[in-house]
Write a structure and sequence with these properties.
single chain; 2 domains
Length: about 150
Amino acid sequence: MSIVTISRGSFSGGKMLAGCLCEKLGYRCVDREVIMERAAAASGLSQEVLRDALEKPPGFLDRFKHNKYVYLAVIQSALIEEVRTGRAVYHGLAGHLLLKGGPHILRVRIIAPMAFRIAMAMQRLKFSREDAIAQAAHPEKLDRALVA
């Protein structure tokens, strides 16, 4: 039972690497959207609420409510269910943390040069070079653009 998790910055080629690995190894490709759909269906929570729990830090008052931790447990459960049979590559946010301590997991971190990330942003989002460079100065904006 082998699982590969790929963590990366936006436009670093993680999705391409996951696709190549799956094709070469005959593994299933699992991404964040698959997990969000499964978690939302199982819990009755909206995908937006779950996505926020995964992507945004808890606010001051949220720290006392513990909702974020419950939502993360729902997401973790969905991911574990999706990869429980092994032979899967997960590329998406926090897979290396959500599957922490599990057996037979290879954790891969991609660090792409900024020039590559800018070129990918230009290609995928149809940005001008100047806009891509401006966005690269604020990677959280690239992450939001990628999800949108």
